[in-house]
Amino acid sequence: MAQWVLAVCYFLHLIATVVWIGGLMLMVLVVWPAARSALSAQDNSGTLLRFFEGLRKRFTPFANLSLIILLVTGLIQMTLDPHYDGFLQITSDWSRAILFKHIAVIGMIGTAAAMQWGVAPALERATLLTQRGKDAPNLPTLQRRERTLTTINLLLGVIVLLFTAIATSV
After folding, report:
1. Under a CB-based contact definition with an 8 Å cutoff, are residues 157 and 151 in contact?
2. pLDDT digit string (tens) for 19-64?
3. Contact, 163 vs 108, CB < 8 A?
């Protein structure tokens, strides 16, 4: 494969990593705490709920696109790496690091799927009920679940970066 194709794969892989893991880090460590302190969680107008709903709707397409790019470019990079001995050939420190990295990536995909197809739709329904002046008793539970899953996803992303660093160093 041409060297420029591999360079483009590395570039796209890095951009997608920054978007996904950087976006998670920004939300967990910066946006959520700032939004909660600026907009009271007890706000009856639902401003905080609408803000988080908008944030979720804007970030999800970027995260999904990043995931696709990461999968495609990651597979290309892995198969072209001189350390790669074949599918599930765990024969070196590099292949062990890549295996653990992929386990963490599968965890990230699982938490993202639970968020996107489980928690997010339930949060949207609860937000809509609240905006219409109706009671949404499960809203605090859903918000905690969203924070928990997003934090888990961020921690798994950091683990992915750790195992990437280990694989790169061998």
Report:
1. no
2. 989 999 998 999 888 887 777 655 655 677 788 888 888 999 999 9
3. no
Tokens of 112: 């993202």
Instruction: Please state, in angstroms and rounded to a whole number, the distance separating the CA atoms of residues 143 and 53.
Output: 11
CA atoms of 54 and 68, how far apart (whole Å)? 22
Neighbours of 83 (CB within 10 A): 14
Coil, helix or strand for 135?
coil
Structure tokens at 30: 């910066």
Q: Which residues contact 64 (CB under 8 A, 6 or more apart)?
A: 116
Cα–Cα dist 42/40, whole Å: 5
DSSP string, 40-82: -TT-TT-HHHHHHHHHHHHHHHHHHHHHHHHHHHHHHHHHHST
CB 28 within 8 A of CB 156: no
In whole angstroms, give the CA distance from residue 70 to residue 89: 21
Return the amino acid letter for 46. G
